[in-house]
Structure formats: structure tokens, C-alpha cells
Amino acid sequence: MRTAALTLALPALASAAKCKPYVDSESLQELITIEDLLAGSQKLQDIADAHEGNRAFGGGGHNATVDWLVEELEKLDYFDVYKQPFTEAFAGSKATLTVAGAAVDARPMTFTPAGDVTGAALINVPNLGCEEADYPAEVSGAVALISRGTCNFAVKATLAKTAGAVAAIVYNNAEGALSGTLGEQSDAYAPAVGITQAEGLAFVEKLAAGEEITLDLNVISIIEDRVNYNVIAETRGGDHDNVLMIGGHSDSVFAGPGINDDGSGTVGVLTVAKALTNFEVKNAVRLGFWGAEEYGKLGSYFYVKQLNGSEEEVSKIRAYLNFDMIASPNPKLAIYDGDGSAFNFSGPAGSDVIEKDYEEFFESKGLGHVPTEFNGRSDYAAFIENGIPSGGLFTGAEGLKTEEEAKLFGGEVGVAYDVNYHLIGDDITNLDNDAYLVNTQAIAHSVAKYAMSWETIPPVSQKKRRYAADVARHLKRAAELTGHSHDGPCGGGSHF
Known about the structure:
Blueprint lengths: L1 H17 L6 H6 L3 H16 L10 H15 L4 E21 L2 E3 L2 E2 L6 E10 L18 E5 L5 H10 L4 E5 L20 E4 L1 H12 L5 E22 L3 E11 L13 H14 L6 E8 L7 H10 L3 H6 E7 L10 E3 L14 H14 L5 E3 L8 H4 L5 E5 L8 H7 L23 H20 L9 H4 L2 H15 L14
Parallel strand pairs: 4-5, 5-6, 6-7, 9-10, 9-11, 11-14, 12-13
Antiparallel strand pairs: 1-2, 1-8, 3-7, 4-8, 8-10, 12-14
Helix pairs in contact: 3-4, 3-7, 7-13, 10-13
């Protein structure tokens, strides 16, 4: 009798052992460690090192990143995981510029043709280079130096080639580095790169004083169609009609490994996903690791477009949270301006609540925070255009840290939040561990909150989605205005 009773008790004990508690913020945060985050970042570095130093979409480095994400998620036995393929044009380039033996930071324009120039003269082009008459005869066989402004970069690159220039260097008309796009592939362009305003004006001053400047410029460019992948994973448990979606992009630029941009967001989301497996959820949690963000947020737009075949599927996503660059080496702790109080553009109803929740999180830890604009430069764009409440975190890109921000967060005034933004130096050494950890804890906090209740977030409705066209126009204008000369996550360069 005693043996029989023990035998009957075993299934009940096994069932109890499998039972998990519902997730809560403190418990989930406790499972997040900097050691796990750095181990994930090192894995991405190893992948890049094995694939020509980058994880650009459709290449071996990004494909290996996708395979690693799928493997890590599938072995958790907690999510349903799938790879979503799509095909897009890839344009990758690298540039090296040397003037008088000194290296100058030159950033190739997207869709620039390749070129290799040795010992060429640098000739200043007056009047912004938007008319054929702006180009002096001396430009033929030389490199044209052109100011940013008025006309787009494609016009400048085309007119430079028409005038016989072997390359075009465009200098910024504002502080910061200049990364732009020519818009599309064309044989009409001269090889084109961007440099800072300070470098450009220094060259202009020397040329005006009669000094001759010669330079070497090498531009490597690859333009081809590539198959790319989003990785989507959703908890098997929870209400699949009321889903929290979180994400970040899994690709890097062609120029470097992208360990902060956006390896930090990728690893942060994955680390929280692993910790979540210790708990039950009431609302399903969906993960999106987006491909081809660096080329215009292509993966996230493709994903949402597929949902648009069904109004019901869009409405199931109760909120989207975006994490793009959460460990910049000279960081700020920035929260997307969901209520529009800082930048006069609010996200869909509920975005204000998300912003407030993150503000309260940082304040609970005695930390400051600042708002960052919904300017269309990261993967939240496709979601807010479809009326889905959105939010997220960001630690800064090429913008310069202000004195006020240095008082709040420490770091160096007048220095970029990430001096290696979109460069080869965005490697495993390019991370601020404190920002990395606290931002990932913030991800855990929001996942725990919304995986349990949507009490404070209104449902997505057709009425809220009617303003999508207005939102799309705003984001397009904001992206064109900010381009890459002001701070914001990535997602394609400015045309102007």
C-alpha cells in the first residue's frame, strides 16, 4: 500500500516541479548579468571576425548571426521560432582617405561606385556644386571638394563625374560625421564620400591660401540582390491575441562588426528572452530580430507589411518596444518621446504610458533620463505607422554629448555618444557596461509588466490606424531632416 501511494504521488510531484511562477519585474531583472551580455557580444564579435569583419545583411556574417539566434532560441523549448526570408538590394562600401600621409575619416555614400585614386589633386567647388557651372575646369582628373546643401548627394556626384572628377568629397554643413546615400545605383556617379564640416572647411581654407592638396582615396563597393532574414519567436504560453512585441536589428553596416549598433540590442533582447523561460506569462511575448535595418529598416517594414493582409493580426500586437544601440561608450539614457512633450510628435495612444513607465524605472534606480525623438530612423517606424503603441531605449549615436547630459550621465562633453558609429571600431571594446546592464534590466522590467497586464495600454483600433499616412509623412520628413548629421539610431543615410 505504501509503495502504491508513493507511485501515485510521483506524477503530482513532477507536475509541481514543472510549474513556474508568473513573471514579475524584480525576479526577471535579477537574472540579467553583465557576464551574460558580454558573452553574447563576444559571440557576435567572433561571427564578424570570421566573416570579413562585419555582419551586413545577406552576407556570411549576418547569415551566421541569424543561425545563432535561431539555435539559441530553439534550444530553450519555450518559443515557437521561424526565419522570415525576403530579398532586397544590398549596397555595401568602405572607404579610406589619406591626405598628406594622415588618415581622414571618410564615409562612403550608399550606392557609391568603387574607385581607387592615388596622388590626385583636391579642387574646391564653389556654390554648393548643384549646377554644372559650379565646377571649374581644374576638377577634371582631380577630386571635387563640395559642401553639403541645397541639392541631393546624387546630383553632386553626377555633376562631379560630368565635369571629369575622379571622385567627390562632400563635407558636412553641420557638426558631426556625414553618412549619406545616393538613392540608387547608377553609372552616372563619381565615387562619393562624406567628411566632417571641420575637415572640409580646413581644406577650403588651405586651398584658398594657394596651398596644393593631394590625396589617396580608395572606395570598395558591392551592390547586389541578397536574400535576408528576420528571426521571429513567440512564447508558447500567454494570450496570443494580446501580444507584447520587442525587437532590435540583427545586421551591422558593411564597414564594421556592429557590436553596439545593434549587437547590444540584439543581445539584450536575447538575454531577457532566456531569463523569461523561468516564468509563465499571461500575455504572449513576441521577439523580432530584424534584418537589413541599416539599409532602410527593410526587415521590420517587410514584417509589418505581411501583417497588413489581416487587420486582426496587426491589432493583436498591443505594443512594440525597440532597442537599437543600448550600450554606447559615452552614453545617455534616452527614452522615446511617446507623449510628444519634447519633440512635438507623439506615438500612438499608449506610447505615452510606455515612456512614463521607463521614466519611473530609471528614477527608481536613482538615474537620470532624457527623451529621444521618434524620427523614423529605427525599426519602430513601421509599427507606429500602423497605430501600434511603441517605445524603447537608446544611448546615442553620432550626436555630441551636451554639458547637461554629462552632468546627468558622466562622460565627455562635446564627444559623440558613439565615436565608432558605423565604423570598424564598433567592436567588443565599444560598450559601456553600466548602460548595457541597466538598459537590459529596463527591457526585463517592461517585458514583465506587459506580459502580465495591458491595463494601462489601450487596444489598437482601426480608428487609431487612420492617421498612418500622416505618421509616415512625418517620419519621412524627420528622417530627411536629421539624416546622419544629428543623433538618432540608424536605418539608412540622408539623401541631402
